[in-house]
Write a structure and sequence with these properties.
There is one protein chain. With 318 residues, the chain is an alpha/beta fold. It folds into two domains: 215 residues, Spore Coat Polysaccharide Biosynthesis Protein SpsA, Chain A (Alpha-Beta Complex); 71 residues. It contains eleven helices and eight strands. An eight-stranded mixed β-sheet has the order 7-5-6-4-1-2-3-8, sandwiched between helices.
Length: 318
Amino acid sequence: MDNDTIRTEQPYLSIVVPVYNEEGNLGPLMERLYPAVQGIGRPFEILFTNDGSRDRSLEILRRMVQQYPGVKVIEFNGNFGQHMAILAAFEMSRGEIVITLDADLQNPPEEIPRLVAEIEKGHDVVGTIRQKRQDSFFRKFASRIVNITTNRITGMQMQDYGCMLRAYHRYVVDNINRCRESTTFIPALAQTFASNPTEIQVGHAERVEGESKYSFYSLIRLNFDLMTGFSVVPLQIFALFGISTALFSLVFALFLLVRRFIVGAEVEGVFTLFAILFFFVGIIIFGIGIVGEYVGRIYQEVRKRPRYVVRQTYGFEE
């Protein structure tokens, strides 16, 4: 396929790569990604979103636009997060099949043809399961908690929400583009529009350059976003717990009343009652926190602020 064909034809594939401080990985990434996509033999585009990088990532990406036909760059004017970076590229992508990929090379670009093949078989969303995952015990444990919690609360069934090497059919991406919420989680959102999703196993490598952009706090935030953004089950569980607690308290109060008449006044068990009280106070505070999460999401939506701001684009035809 010649360079003019890549520039002029309607892309069949759109590869979406969010970038945040990845200057050491971008060169090796393109050395592997570009041949892998070229080998499929169909017109393609590669969209990078520079999510407010503070290193030389943008400079490197701008050079790639000149060096590699089909490469396009979206420049944010700040750091809006991985999922906003992907959504911006989704809105500007044109491919029939859209594939997301992290820039850190932990997921091999050579796996992309396998994802394309699954979409061509009739699946509309193709997720991936990282095999022999090269992450720390903490990250693997936190990821497992997120997967289990999300499946239980949302009713979805995915084994690995954290792997961003995923493929989407055009109509799924179009439906995602119609959603305007200010915080979201794209793999879970795509599942709500998928009619025939699947997952395949892919390789996983250790990060060579840079460091993970997900801190412990970010993982907690992600879990809360998943719980409150795709289900009201946490509120329902808390309501049911409140009803059960009220019934139990009523029964316990009647028991103490009858016991007082039979045994008489006593002061034993005061510390036990305090322990029970503190337990329920903790539950109440936790419940208020869950309600606060939902209220916070409503507050973010009613402000109607832009989800992200694009400063400039490179490589897009006028």
